[in-house]
Design a protein that fits this description.
14 helices
Length: about 350
C-alpha cells in the first residue's frame, strides 16, 4: 500500500498530467483564461467595495494584465480582406505580423451566439479543428477572445471552395468521384471523433493549393450520444441539403444519427453532375415539401450524362434513413461501384 507521501506524489502527478493535457478542463491554458476572466469581471467599482474582492485584485490584477499582454490578440494580425460572412460573424484573410504567415480568421459575435445558443456550437467547432489529426479537416492554429468577439485562427485554403470550382468548370464524373471520395473520408474522420456535421454543402468544402479538399465550418456539429444519435429540437442546416429526419426535428422530435450527413453528400454529388440541387424550388416550403416527398420528387434530367453507378449512389443516399447507404458504417460506401477505378483512366 502507498504511504501518505506516496499518495500525495501520485495525486500531484495526476494534477500535472491534467494541466499538460490539451483536452483536459484543467489544462494550463484553461486555468490562465479563467484567471484572466475572473480578474476582468471583478474589476468594477461596485464590486471592489467588497474587501475580499479588492484583496484578490490587489494581489492578481497586475499578473492578469501581464497575461493579457502575452496572450495572442487581434492586434497581432493585419487584416487583408473579407472572405466570408455568416450568421454569427465573418471570416477574414489575415497576416500574422511577426511571422508574416497567412491565415483565415473567423470572428464570432458573442452576443449573437448567446442569443442563438440552441444553434451555436462554438466549443464543438473549436474542439474538432484543434484536436483532429485528419488531413481532411481544416486545422486550428489558435483561439482567443476580447469583450465582444471570439476568434479562431485557421489554416488558409487558397483553392477556394467547391462552389467556386463548379462555377469555373463543368465537372466531369471522374472529378466528382475524386471529390466525393475525399468528402467521405473527411466525414468519416468527423464521425470517428464522435460528431455529426449537419451542414455538408459545397460552401463548406474547401480546396488546398494541391487541389485536395478539407471540410470546414463545424459550427453546426453536435456530439453523438453513446448510441450514435443526437437529440435536437431545431432543424439545423442549409435548406437545399438538409435531410428529411433533420427537417422533422423541428418542434422537439429530433432524434437522428450520422446518416443525415450522407444524405447531404448525395445532394452534393447530384449538384456536381447536374449543376443544380435536386429539390430546389423558389420557395422554402416548396423545397421542404420536395425533400419530404423525395421518393416521388427525385428526378434525373435526360440532358445530363451520368453513369448508372452515379445514379445508384445518389439514390442510395437520398432515401429514408432506415435504409440509407452508410447507416451501418463507412465501409459500405467505400465498396460502392461509383468509386471503382476505371483502368482506362489510369
Amino acid at each position: 500500500m502507498l504511504g501518505a507521501e506516496g499518495r500525495l506524489e501520485s495525486r500531484l502527478e495526476k494534477l500535472e498530467s491534467l494541466m499538460r493535457d490539451p483536452q483536459s478542463g484543467l489544462n494550463l491554458e484553461t486555468l490562465l483564461d479563467s484567471m484572466n476572466a475572473l480578474a476582468h469581471d471583478l474589476n468594477y467599482p461596485a464590486l471592489r467595495k467588497n474587501k475580499n474582492i479588492e484583496a484578490f485584485l490587489s494581489r492578481y490584477e497586475k499578473a492578469a494584465s501581464q497575461l493579457r499582454e502575452l496572450q495572442v490578440k487581434l492586434e497581432d494580425f493585419d487584416k487583408v480582406k473579407l472572405i466570408g460572412k455568416g450568421a454569427y460573424g465573418e471570416v477574414r484573410l489575415v497576416r500574422h505580423k511577426a511571422s508574416r504567415k497567412v491565415y483565415a480568421m473567423k470572428q464570432l459575435n458573442k452576443f449573437e451566439m448567446i442569443k442563438r445558443s440552441d444553434s451555436a456550437f462554438f466549443w464543438e467547432e473549436r474542439h474538432i479543428m484543434a484536436y483532429s489529426n485528419s488531413p481532411w479537416v481544416v486545422q486550428l492554429f489558435c483561439a482567443f477572445q476580447d469583450d465582444r468577439h471570439l476568434y479562431m485562427v485557421m489554416e488558409f485554403m487558397p483553392g477556394g471552395d467547391l462552389v467556386t470550382l463548379t462555377m469555373n468548370y463543368d465537372i466531369p464524373e471522374k472529378w466528382a468521384i475524386f471529390y466525393t471520395a475525399e468528402v467521405v473520408l473527411a466525414l468519416d474522420a468527423i464521425h470517428s471523433m464522435g460528431f455529426i456535421h449537419r451542414d455538408v454543402k459545397p460552401d463548406n468544402i474547401l480546396l488546398d493549393q494541391h487541389g485536395h479538399l478539407k471540410l470546414a465550418d463545424f459550427g453546426t456539429c453536435m456530439k453523438m450520444d453513446s448510441t450514435g444519435m443526437v437529440h435536437c429540437d431545431t432543424a439545423v442546416g442549409t435548406p437545399d441539403y438538409i435531410s428529411p429526419e433533420v427537417l422533422q426535428s423541428q418542434g422537439g422530435h429530433g432524434h437522428y444519427g450520422r446518416e443525415c450527413d450522407w444524405w447531404s453528400v448525395g445532394i452534393v454529388i447530384y449538384e456536381l453532375l447536374v449543376g443544380d440541387t435536386p429539390f430546389y424550388t423558389e420557395s422554402l416550403i416548396g423545397t421542404y415539401g420536395k425533400i419530404m416527398n423525395h421518393k416521388n420528387s427525385l428526378v434525373f434530367p435526360e440532358d445530363k450524362e451520368m453513369s448508372q453507378s452515379a445514379r445508384d449512389l445518389i439514390c442510395a443516399f437520398l432515401t429514408d434513413r432506415e435504409v440509407r447507404l452508410g447507416r451501418t458504417g463507412v465501409d459500405e460506401i467505400k465498396c460502392h461501384p461509383f468509386f471503382k477505378n476505371d483502368p482506362v483512366d489510369l
